[in-house]
Write a structure and sequence with these properties.
The protein has 430 residues and is mostly helical. Helices cover 68% and strands 2% of the residues. A two-stranded antiparallel sheet has the order 1-2. The protein is globular.
Amino acid sequence: LLTISEDQRIQLLLIGFAFNAFLEGVAGFGVPIAICAVLLIQLGFKPLQAAMLCLVGNGAAGAFGAIGLPVSVIDTLALKGDVSALDVAQATNLSLPILSVIVPFLLVFIIDGFKGIKETLPAIIVTVVPFVVLQVFFNQFFGPELVDILPPLASMGALALFSKKFQPKNIFRLNAGEEKMEVKHHSFREVVFAWSPFIILTILVLIWSSKAFKGLFLEDGALSFMNVKFGIPGTMNDISGHPIMLTFNILNQTGTALLIAGIITVLISSKVNFKRAGALFVEAFKELWLPILTICFILAIAKVTTYGGLTSAMGEGISKTGAAFPFLSPILGWIGVFMTGSVTNNNALFAPIQASVAPQVGTSGALLVGANTAGGAIAKLISPQSIAIATAAVKQVGRESELLKMTLKYSVGLLIFWCIWTFILSLILG
């Protein structure tokens, strides 16, 4: 990183924003906050400050974490109006790119004010433009899976290349008198090999999320025979009268692409064998079994509330707010993530309500579900789960309240803006 720039504002854009977003895309579940905060500390940032900056930076990526899971989960919810994950991804193009523009400016402003923005403006623009352009492109044509993978990679690459020619006039360091870290150079081959797992993963996810690949599993597709359909006992479709049918297929799931990417990585690696990979898998499962189980239960609750009519009932009640509901829509998502700690869980619980209310207040279901997602992403700045992960990563356990105070104003400020913006969009689209 020091070979790119010694200016901590540039390092913050690279790590706190772009790399943070990339890790959110490939992992999620607090991983980017933990890793990026530690990296920033190694670069000279104070522990609690590093944690706060990573939480703020993560706000631009939280909606599409873990291979787009918060949005792709929508396809499992059978939302009213047939709102799909692609519909929501396209609807977020009207709002979330704004957040992606705001966050880099905000990060630089936090550590160096308007002076910092002025001195690093070219670098900020170079960071933002590829991120936002590719974010919009993938949302529009592919869906949510790659939105937090390729755009951050492009952003990091653009900033790294740009920094070879441009450096701020004044190199900014939080601690001007600190000793310089030793710079270690790596060959191009070493760099490519280090990034190869992510390159493989990106290529496979791109294939898995393409319309051509998904078309193979449609009813008349070449691989449709791999779809296993079964009815849920004790349920009844309100149209056909038959049990509600679920389709099960392992091959066309994005997780399969991740598994294949992992296997290929082990095969080409000289340092990791299958025994070690298996041990790492077990270790990861031990760390994540509770979030996995939680998501399963929350999805089950979402299904029960949807099929049981509870979602429609709640939607009818909330719809009494009338045309004002779009203003409140992001707040529902904000509360959802504050309670559950996950944008995925938030959408599983509240997306059905948002989609149910939309036609009753005369607006787009995809817009409100997108607002629910955006509100949730903004809430990650103050989610108790995120705060706990961040303080633990920077060894500041016990100072959670201090960190919350640092991030709360940014979360609330962004939420207010989002409420107003969603309301304006509802008037335009309605």
